[in-house]
Amino acid sequence: MMLNLFIFLALFLLAAYAVLTYYPAFGGKHTHERKSIYASSTQYRNGRFINQVETSWNTSFSSMISMMRDYIKGNPERRPVVPIQMASYAPGAKEDSAAKVTWFGHSAFLLEIEGKTILFDPMFGKAPTPFPVRNQRYSKELPFKIEDLPVIDAVVLSHDHYDHLDYGSIMKLKGKVKNFIAPLGVGAHLQRWGISPQIIQEHDWWNEFSFDGLQLACTPARHFSGRSLTDRNATLWCSWVINGNEANIFYSGDGGYGPHFKEIGEKYGPFDLTLMECGQYDARWAALHMMPEETVQAHQDVQGKLMIPVHWGAFTLALHAWHDPVERAVRSAKEAGVQIATPRIGETFTVGLDDYPATVWWGLTKVRM
């Protein structure tokens, strides 16, 4: 019996090692040469990237017990009770210089600006996990077919978590993407998936660079990274500034509230549009994901004019009701006198126009028809 148990454990460990090593969804590993390059970053210490300020979640015994209790208790409103009614995305005219934004749910969005098409955090898979069996996307379909998307001048990534960097989506997209732009370390995943290193750019915080006539900056965020049990904070996370002749846009990426927002606003603001993380939060991990009221404050800190709340509307990754992020953000924005746009998934609108989408479309999914 002991021999059989030993054999079982050995086979289990061997299988686990094989999956972690060879299953491509886990991404790439970093060579000593890569690590020596990262060592020049002020964000890199002892083989890991760090935040500007102390960032962790509450892992006390009482917190863990309360979290287990809340997960067991559940929340019937963690998912929509009826399907989400999406808009149908149709590519715009590239010769139109006006900046247009299309939100695809969660944090994925397309920016069409000055003849360029830039896709951010394209998670188009069924579930934000390496094994997409549970926690499925609210909508079974996307508001488009990936093969119908226009040629993408650049895919821009904020970090390597599964709900932002999806293996299946990258594999379907890579034939029509000219460039990949990411924070330090994320390129290793892309290279493992067959992306040529010649079209991958990696950037550290505060790096400024030109891209096809646009001015971009990789800016700080307060978060973490990792795709497996052994690569916590092995890659950098970030926010992005996209500055063109027609519009100045900020994307927060993921993260908790912090002093970096005011720094970004002072250096690169004001912004015509911000896309700010708002969702998958909890008081126990507020340092990693902003509460909706902090989302509005962060928008004000970066000196934004119009805000779109993102990081919600596609998946359930926290305990709150699925519609809670946008409702709290809208309420807080109204109290603060902040303009907030609430486009449907797949809906395109032009930046800078006063006629921005502000319908309460999620209200139709809260009751059974």
Explain what the structure shows:
With 369 residues, the protein is α/β, with parallel strands linked by helices. The protein has a domain at 96-128 and 142-365: Ribonuclease Z/Hydroxyacylglutathione hydrolase-like (Metallo-beta-lactamase, Chain A, 4-Layer Sandwich), CATH 3.60.15.10. The protein is built from eight helices and 16 strands. The protein has helices at residues 2-22, 32-38, 61-73, 167-173, 187-192, 260-268, 292-301, 324-336; strands spanning 44-45, 48-49, 100-103, 109-113, 116-120, 154-156, 180-183, 200-203, 207-211, 214-219, 239-243, 248-251, 271-277, 304-310, 339-340, 348-350. The chain has a seven-stranded mixed beta sheet. It has a seven-stranded mixed beta sheet with strand order 9-10-11-12-13-14-15, covered by helices on one side. Helix 7 crosses helix 8 (324-336). The chain is globular, with a radius of gyration of 20 Å. The protein starts with a helix and ends in a 19-residue tail after the last strand. The model has no long low-confidence stretch (mean pLDDT 90). InterPro entries: Metallo-B-lactamas (IPR001279), NAPE-PLD (IPR024884), RibonucZ/Hydroxyglut_hydro (IPR036866). Pfam families: Lactamase_B_2.
